[in-house]
From TrEMBL:
The lineage of its organism: unclassified sequences, metagenomes, ecological metagenomes. InterPro entries: Amidohydro_3, Metal-dep_hydrolase_composite, Metal_Hydrolase, Metallo-hydrolase_Enzymes. This is Unannotated protein. Residues 90-397 form the Amidohydrolase domain. Transmembrane segments: none annotated. GO terms for molecular function: hydrolase activity, acting on carbon-nitrogen (but not peptide) bonds, in cyclic amidines. It comes from freshwater metagenome.
Length: 411
């Protein structure tokens, strides 16, 4: 048996530990007090003195098909519809190879920053067809040795009314092509409630997780999340459910939020907040009192809802900046959402892993050895400094520059 021994690493709780990893199975086999793990003739030892060791960062909500399009797409309004309209204007110029190249570059950068798993949405539209989805499935295949990529169809709206039938057929094609997750944007549909019913039924019929772009607006009358919870409580689906964005909750009063959060918890729905992109896109119609446009994390967590966080878009018309770094997301959670550094770190590691895997992938014996070590003595220090000198372990294997060789890159 070949073992990887990690010595003298600091955990989020502050303990100093040694970690043993079986590189054949890719799993953690020992977590002991520092100094107690003895190397063997078949083991390789890595000294992590001065490093914070956690389960790998997770990006639970990305759009790899759009990565690095900022200089090709105009969004003069700076809002959500401006980005959508701008993207539609150039959609015909976006090719399969173009997407694979940009998405692969994004996956490499995410991995180098310590991300071991991604859930990426891929546009599935009448004009663009399945090209973005197929391109991300190819990216998933090419990058599988250093990062997990889940591909969610982001089904075009409307799904209701006379135009819905074509898109429903397109969704079936996407599932047949290998989509891992069903997704859509009910808040943009003429009938959001019916759209949620359609998407949930589609996911249920094919035993796929459902991940909705929900309530991505600041209208207090928007109720995608509550509708999803009501339907789930009524029908008891056995599939995993996640609602991303949910920024409309931020303009509700506390009692209303608490009422909705109780339903969401009972329905076992996770919520993924996306501060970077929502801070950029939302509240554009207000010149002075701008909303923060981040779902109310504390009230959701108070009701025991699993709340994760991701970056969403990166360097595209929905978000012109971003470094594909979960510590950047964590920093925004601290500053804009008033989270503790500990909570922020968990939201981009274990909580995010629970969204995409149904398991927190923690630093625990028998868990998959997807780990990241950052030069820091605690979560606050890691978030504040954002060091690029990170050590990444995927399925028990130490990643090196050779892990990314012979892959297409985008400049």
């Amino acid at each position: 048996m070949t073992e990887l021994h990690l010595q003298s690493a600091r955990t989020l709780s502050g303990d100093l530990v040694d970690v043993g990893i079986d590189q054949v199975t890719g799993r953690i086999i020992r977590v002991t007090q520092s100094g107690t793990l003895q190397p063997s003739p078949t083991s390789h030892t890595l000294d992590l003195t001065g490093y914070l060791l956690t389960s790998g960062f997770i990006e639970p909500h990305a759009h790899l098909d759009k990565a690095f399009l900022a200089d090709r797409v105009d969004n003069p309004e700076g809002d959500l519809m401006g980005a959508i309209i701008g993207l539609d204007a150039i959609r015909s110029t976006i090719t399969f190879d173009d997407i694979v190249t940009r998405a692969t570059q994004a996956a490499i950068l995410l991995s180098q920053n310590g991300v071991t798993g991604i859930r990426s949405h891929a546009d599935v539209t009448l004009e663009g067809g399945l090209t973005p989805l197929l391109a991300l499935l190819e990216t998933k295949r090419r990058c599988a040795h250093f990062i997990d990529i889940q591909v969610a169809m982001l089904l075009e709206w409307p799904l209701t009314g006379t135009q819905g039938a074509q898109r429903h057929a397109l969704a079936l094609d996407a599932i047949a092509a290998g989509a891992d997750i069903v997704g859509g944007c009910p808040h943009l549909d003429d009938n959001p409630t019916q759209a949620i019913d359609i998407l949930l039924q589609l996911a249920h019929d094919h035993n796929l997780p459902l991940d909705l772009h929900a309530d991505e607006n600041l209208r207090p009358t928007s109720h995608d999340l509550e509708t999803l919870a009501d339907v789930a409580l009524r029908t008891s689906p056995t599939i995993a459910l996640n609602a991303s964005h949910c920024v409309a909750l931020s303009v509700r009063d506390d009692r209303d939020i608490e009422r909705i959060a109780e339903k969401v918890a009972q329905a076992s729905i996770s919520v993924t907040v996306l501060p970077q992109t929502n801070l950029f896109l939302q509240s554009r119609d207000s010149s002075a009192r701008k909303q923060r446009a981040i779902a109310p994390i504390d009230l959701l967590r108070k009701s025991h809802v699993n709340v994760a966080s991701g970056a969403d878009n990166v360097q595209d018309p929905f978000n012109p900046v971003g470094r594909l770094d979960p510590l950047e997301t964590a920093s925004l959670l601290v500053m804009a959402a008033h989270q503790s550094t500990q909570n922020a770190y968990e939201m981009v590691t274990t909580s995010a892993a629970s969204v995409i895997y149904g398991d927190d992938r923690g630093l625990v014996v028998d868990k998959v050895a997807d780990l990241v070590a950052v030069p820091a003595h605690n979560a606050r220090h890691a978030i504040a400094m954002g060091s690029s000198q990170r050590i990444v372990i995927k399925n028990g294997q130490l990643l090196t520059p050779d892990s990314y060789k012979d892959l297409p890159t985008y400049n």
